[in-house]
Sequence to fold (1695 residues):
Amino acid sequence: MVAAFFTDVMLQPLGIYVLALGAGFLVPLFDRAHRGSAMLVFMGSLAGMVAIAALNLYAIINGAAVIDIETAGIAPPFAINLRFGLFEGGVVLAVNIAALLGAWHYLPSLKQHASALLLYLILVMGINGMVMTRDLFNLFIFIEITSIATYALIGMERTGTVLAAGFKYIIATSVATAFFLLGTIFIYYQVGTLNIDDIISHGALIHGPIGLIATLFVLTSLLIELKPYPANGWGLDVYETANSGIASLISVGVSAGVFFALFKLLPLMDAYLDSIAVVAGATFLLSNIIGLKQHNAKRLLGYSSIGQMGLLTLALVLLEQLDAGAQIALVVGGLFVNHLLAKAGLFWLAGIVDRTNIKDWASIARRPELLILLGLMFAALIGLPPFPGFWAKWELVMLLGSADQYGWILLVLLGSLLEAAYLFRWFSHARKRDDELTEHVCSFWQPAPVAIAAALLVAIGFGMAGTMDLDVPAMFLPLLAGFGLWLIDGLPARVKQLAMLLAVAAGGYWLTQELTGINQLFSYLLVAGGLLISIATIYRNDVRNGFYPLLAVLLLSLAALLRASTTLEFFFSWELMTLSSYLLITLARAGIKPALAYLLFSLGSAYFIFAGFAAAFASTGSILLADLGNVSSPGLVFSLLAAGFVIKMGGFGVHIWLPDAYAEADDDFTAMLSAVVSKAGIFGLVIIAAQLGIRSDIGLDPAYVLGWIGILTATFGALMAVFQEDIKRLVAYSSMGQLGYIVTGVALMSHLGWVSALYLTVNHFLFKGILFLSIAGIVLRTNERLMYKMGGLIKNMPVTFVFTMIAIIAMSGVPPLTGFGGKWMLFNALMEKGWYWIAALAFFSSAVAFLYMFRLLQTVFLGQRKLEHAKLREAPAILLVPQVVMIAAIMAISAYPKLLLDPLSAAINPWIANTLVWDGFALQTHYGYWNAPLIMAIVGGVWMVPLIILLLVSLTMKIQKVEQFNIVYAAERPHRPEDTHFAYNFFAHYDRAIGFLVRPRATAFWNAVIEWSHTLGSSLRVFYNGNGQTYALFILMYFVAMVLFNGGLGS
Amino acid sequence: MIAEWTGKIANFALTLLIVTAYGLFMTAFIERIIAKVQGRIGIPYWQPVINILKNFFKRTAVSHGYMFYLGPVFRIAGGIGTLAFIPVIYGSETFSNFSMAGDLFLVIYFMFFGQLGMALGAGESGHPYSAIGIARGLSQMTAYEVPFALAVISIVIQYDTLSITEIVAAQQGGWQNWTVFTNWVATLAAMLAFLGMTGYSPFDIFLAPQEIPIGPPTEFHSAYLSFMSLNRALFGATKLVLFMNLFFGGATGLIELMIKTWLIYMVAIVVGVAFPRFRVDQAIRFFFKIPTLIGIMSIVYAQMMLTS
Amino acid sequence: MSLIADTPISLIVLCSGLALVLIGLWGMLTQRNMIRMIVGFSLTDTGVHMVMVSIGYVTGGTAPIINDAVPIAEAASRVVDPVPSALVLTAIVIGLGVTAVMLSVAIRIYKARRTLMIDECTESKW
Amino acid sequence: MIKSLSTEDTLENSGLSAEEQQLFCNARPKAYEPYPIKAVEDFANWARANSLWILAFGTGCGAIELRPLMTARFDANRFGVAGRPTPRQSSVFVIGGYASVKTLKRIIRSYEQMQGPKFVICLGICPVNGGMYFDSYNTINQFDLYLPVDLYITGCMPRPEVLVAGIMELQKKIKQGRCDGANRYVENFDWYKANQKKVIKNWDMPDYNW
Fold:
């Protein structure tokens, strides 16, 4: 009998109500007896709700029928009925889980009054009811129950601020619900039933002004409950002031219920889909803009929450419009779960950390677990892989693309970018090691709910990945490796380094083994090269928490990028690479601020690529990279993708993130960034060029523009490098310039152009790797980055000097080393193409490059050595080892370029017919010829002969090796190395001549952009003046506006 | 094979000898002309040789380090190499050198080889004046490279080749085929750049014998110095040969070579004797204005030639 | 006189209900005192209830009790629709609850900050 | 070839602080033998004689007499004479008239920075016996106590013609191989140093300025 009751009632969805009400009665009783047991009952009943929802959902997923509960045993419409279908089940389960975890977090403050426990239960039950009920009036009742419970919970607080916010909330929602009631009754008046299904089936009966008013009242009050801009100040105030537990439940639970109600009633709203979309889209975008100005943690979360609800509504409506009902589960469901868990988790985190101003969040800088949770939640919110939001956004954008809704795509991506801006700014604040801030203390168990939420997010994201067509093991390998290494992050550095190298080697090999063609070439460059450079990381043996796992993630995601066969896989790995490199930059002490810029620009580039892929999908309907070539509008797709890749490579105008990021990152990681990571952009560029660029119908224009961008990047990169004092910034700018040549080479869309581009790519990898590793050694020894504070180091670090010199000759393009080949081929290709102006600029920029190259050698290695540097030792051997390998490669390629050129041209031949003509050792082009081995021999000869002569002559002389101050100093003697070493502002005269070209205009522009957006934000939030009546007025005006907008007067 | 290459090397050695001797002679000759302008007699013709020998016969020297020691070697290697890649006399196997190794682009880039090595050597001397001189010289170089590059591009468009031999071949058959007449715009730009290249006044600030005693070579002396003065003669002559090949129809014999190069050199000398010195930033701005403009025009001109 | 007599009672109720709603809103938007705002709310609420009742009324109808006085055949035309009345009961209860919570919150606000003026509770904004 | 220092041929640069010691070379200068083959030595001397690079360092009032040498009137270029702004490259040091103590310090440094063979010409009477400054507290009365002199051209002031004559005389001496001032300086290095340090009180430079 009991068992029967158990199975028939308790395990049914109805059991949720039974549990809630039953526990509601029991809690006060137990509370009288014993507080602990009351809490036990409370948690038990919540857990029970979760269990019931889970069991029934499981049953339904396994094909059980949708459960219809008819109260009082009478069929609808004569009695209220509830429904527990797939969607209801999912939402209910999610909400209950959030409620359970929220209760865990909220318990400390809940348990002060037993009634609070009761109210919490009622609140949860109300949400469940909103989701399940199929009766319009019943929906109203559940809304009110939820609201009352919420009011009461807020009212529990004693502080005036919270109460005031609560009162505004009450006023606002009660006005809204009053209208809901009116709408309901008018609908009943016309349809004669309250059962939602019947109403929908007799939707035709809703007609005339009354019908319009009725539906609009219902719709608008639901929208109001979802807090649309600008009628949402009341919600923000509650988010800001209320306890994090209640705020989280309002943000995810109540909104979820209302949102689902909207979803249920949507069939009635067909006429108003557009206005809903506009409202939702505006809310998403504008609340994210306003978020930029916000520094109050919980209010910021409120803005983000409102924005996310807007995005959800927008997605729902757009899918409805494109009648892509099939994807609702994936897109809306994904976004919903993402928002639910991440936002709830963030509210709880805010409760735990309990710092109002996000600038004070540095207090958790030394709490890695809190930081990781924060980062995970943020990543999930802006839809980075592997979280559900990523897949949902991907699907959404693809759908929008295929419907040519580019405006909406722009809005979604822009909003996400803004959200990323303020969320990760917050993360940067939290990362700052600010010592005077008191460190945050919290018990070990306090973050547990957040952790569980994060785990659920990852798990769901992983699950969703299974439903996409995606090579899951390959794509998740980086994360897996990173996780594994993170587990052993406590071990000594040497062990971690070894494990990292092994993991990358094995994983990289497995990922890239069966690649061919260009991908294979890049796999040597990115994976093998990355491995080579990461050997250098051994030169440090401090702890470096998180460095090695992230490095593994980075390198393996690069490998996965090469392996990607679909745009989805490509984008997935791309985002993974962006995220991991961002975090790696933040690991450096001063790297946090530049890292933010790096991340934002990288996300910008990623979104360009995203849009490009969407456009491609729109025209081909396939996400295979191989099908990119068949798009009907190659110009658009090419431009979008190229823009993305150029941003990632620090193209002219969007380069401002590059120098700071390169300069402030860890020294060995800078080498990785410049030599390896930057190649990802080149890879993408080459791929799309191969797929789209050589299409005849694309027209030369995008490629020509790309060529100009490339050469301008090269020129200005070189010019700006000339005026740097910081050695790393100098080489960073030079990196930018060199990449510019490569962009131009790719843009040439000719065989020779591509060969030169790839050749330059390999060359750039070699010499930039050497340069940055030598710099790492120098900085390690001198603890300086300003070049004028060094000097004369050739005496202490001869090996480093020689390596640097070779690298610089290889970069400068002076024969006989590799650089010349690249320049020669590029020049020939440019002439063949007839791009004479670009050729001239290329010539000029490579001449300018000499200035900074010489400055680097002169001011660091030559000139006067400082007294304190007299005892410096040579750079550590482990830093030199990779350099030796790269020097060897440079020498080999210089002496015998065929070694490199044959595979390069073989990789290109599938796309463009080979044009390399070999005459013996000499490479022939239409214009000229280049016989590298002979050049090498001649240069060797003409260098050896005078050397021998000089040695012979030296035999007849007494040559005295002298010290640094034995110089002709106008019949005086030098006094301090500092004032004898000509290094600071080395090219002052050059600055006087053409310095006006390199005043930081791009920086000024981007700063202005930041300024504008913040100003816009502050002017958009004037509505939130904190006055409850103003808020109520806005709500009223919202109703009026909706009615007018939807032709209320017309009909 | 071996014989062939030894032959080539022997030929090149001969060319090297002749060009160097000619360069030294030219230096003295120009000195004497300047002297005449100033109403003096001037140095004997063999003076440059004596100076070089004198420096070789120095018995003491100092060294600031291995890069300082190698600087002059790099310098003269740059000179010799540049010559090695240029065919000196058209149609003569003996004087074609190793021009089969690379084209005009190689020559232009190899010119930097010596300058870079020299700069490093001077840098290690630790003398501030060296660094200043090099900083000025390099900046000026980037400036005059612009009109020069434009002119080169223009004639590459015109002759549709980068091979110096072919460029010369295209100018054979009468003075009217010389670039200076067929593409005078490019020649004008290039000759303006040439003023900067030779490093005579008004573009000799980076040597500035008074303010920064003779700039980069301040610390060099003895054998180092003689290497460098040898190179100065050789490199100067090489540049003349290059300009003659590119713009003045090359030479079919030694006499023609000498007359033409002498005339080309005279341009720089006349300007140098007539004009005072530019400050380096003035020099840079100068090259970025009129000469660059002319260079741009020269490319347009060449394209018009192609179309018509 | 006759005008009022002719107009059906339900219409009068409806109009006055709507009027009440507007008056209530006017009160909530203009009165700064929270208690007055709450009064405004309950006016609105009552107005809504009146509207609901008026919707269900059938002119000259009797109570919705099916007996020999009202045969089933004529029920639809003769009896008042019972549903709105039922709804109104629930609505009243809920309105009551909401008003109660409002008042208690208002009281607490007064305790906490010694004022009932809504425009003095604007510290959380922007 | 570049030779490494052994202990006995180093100087203790007592004028320098310990910190500065490492910045200056402390090797003792070495004398050089003539070339083993006589013909080579003669040829070398001929070359040296015909390429006299004068250090452009006017140490006294006589410097004014050096300038006209390069003008059209005297045109010393004919004899291979040229001015050179850096001692490293010049081979002749013309002490233009009196040398004050203050200047002597610079003269010594510049002389030591010249590469041998190097020659010193004393111009005017002052370097011989102080001339009109014979009782001045800060003028060197007898120059060859401090540096080896190869040629005196007396007079106050000698005109450029005399200077030209002197240069030709110097050339003659050089050709005969009789100008070994540099070696004399090295051989009697300690004596010269002692004299120099006697008059130069603030000796803040290495004992030999390489």
About this structure: The two ends of chain B are 46 Å apart (CA to CA). Chain B is about 70% helix and 0% strand. The mean pLDDT of chain B is 91. Residues 2-307 of chain B form one domain.
